[in-house]
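User: Reviewer 2 asked us to show a designed sequence for the structure in our supplementary figure. I'm pasting the C-alpha cells here. Could you produce the per-position amino acids so we can include them in the response letter?
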C-alpha cells in the first residue's frame, strides 16, 4: 500500500495543505485525477472547492466523489484518493451508506495511493475508538478501513502543565483505551504525518510522534523514525 496520513490539513497562519504541500504533491502521481471524499463536513461542494483550489497549481485534477450519481465510479476513475478532515463519525457513516468503505479498502490494498488528513487519517486505522470527535451521528459500526493494524490519534496534544482545566488530557484518554484494548496508538502532533510504502512506515514532519502501548510508558519517536514494526502487530480489541 501507498499511504500518506496527515495529522492535520490546516496549520496556524497558513493556507489549506500549505504546510505539507511539497509532500502532498510529491506523493500524488503527476497530473493525477484525485478522488476527494468530502463527507466529514456538511457542505461537500465548498469543501471540494477548497481542496481543488489548494492543488490546482500543482496540476492535480480534483473530483469530489459526491459529484455525479455514483461515488464508486468516481473512485474507480481516480489515480489517487484523498479523505479530508472533519467529523469522523459523520464521515464513516457516509462511507458505509455509499458503499465506499469496502470499495476504498479494496482499491487501496490493490495499490491506489491513499491520502488522509485528520478524520481521513482516522479512517486508515481499524476503528474510530481513538478519535477526538463527538459522535454526532451513529455509523453502523466503529470499524473503519483497517489499512494499518494500529490506531492513530491525529492532532495529538501534550498536557499543559500550567492549565487549570480538570478534564482528561489526551494521554489519559488514550491510556483508558489501552486499559480495554491491546492495540498501539500513534499520536501524531500537528504538522506531522505517517508515511507508509509497502512494508515500511515512518514518522515524518515537523514534530516527533508519541507512541502508546499497553503496559508501557509512552515513547517519543523523532521525525524520521522507522515504525515498520507496527505494520506487523496483531490488534486485540476488548482485551481487558
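Assistant: Here is a per-position design you can include in the supplement:
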Amino acid at each position: 500500500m501507498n499511504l500518506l496520513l496527515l495529522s492535520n490539513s490546516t496549520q496556524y497562519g497558513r493556507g489549506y495543505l500549505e504546510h505539507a504541500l511539497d509532500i502532498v504533491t510529491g506523493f500524488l502521481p503527476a497530473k493525477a485525477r484525485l478522488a476527494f471524499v468530502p463527507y466529514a463536513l456538511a457542505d461537500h461542494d465548498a469543501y471540494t472547492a477548497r481542496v481543488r483550489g489548494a492543488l490546482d497549481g500543482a496540476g492535480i485534477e480534483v473530483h469530489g466523489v459526491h459529484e455525479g450519481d455514483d461515488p464508486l465510479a468516481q473512485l474507480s476513475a481516480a489515480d489517487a484518493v484523498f479523505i479530508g478532515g472533519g467529523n469522523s463519525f459523520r464521515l464513516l457513516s457516509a462511507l458505509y451508506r455509499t458503499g465506499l468503505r469496502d470499495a476504498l479498502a479494496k482499491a487501496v490494498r490493490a495499490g491506489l495511493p491513499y491520502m488522509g488528513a485528520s478524520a481521513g487519517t482516522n479512517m486508515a486505522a481499524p476503528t474510530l475508538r481513538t478519535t477526538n470527535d463527538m459522535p454526532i451521528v451513529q455509523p453502523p459500526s466503529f470499524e473503519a478501513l483497517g489499512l494499518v493494524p494500529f490506531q492513530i490519534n491525529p492532532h495529538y496534544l501534550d498536557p499543559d502543565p500550567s492549565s487549570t482545566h480538570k478534564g482528561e488530557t489526551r494521554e489519559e484518554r488514550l491510556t483508558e483505551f489501552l486499559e480495554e484494548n491491546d492495540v498501539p496508538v500513534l499520536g501524531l502532533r500537528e504538522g506531522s504525518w505517517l508515511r507508509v510504502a509497502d512494508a515500511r512506515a515512518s514518522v515524518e514532519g515537523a514534530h516527533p510522534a508519541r507512541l502508546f502501548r499497553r503496559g508501557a510508558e509512552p515513547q517519543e519517536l523523532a521525525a524520521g523514525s522507522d515504525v515498520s514494526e507496527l505494520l506487523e502487530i496483531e490488534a486485540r480489541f476488548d482485551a481487558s
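For the response letter, you might also mention the following. The first strand starts at residue 2 and ends at 6. The chain has one domain: 2-151+189-207.
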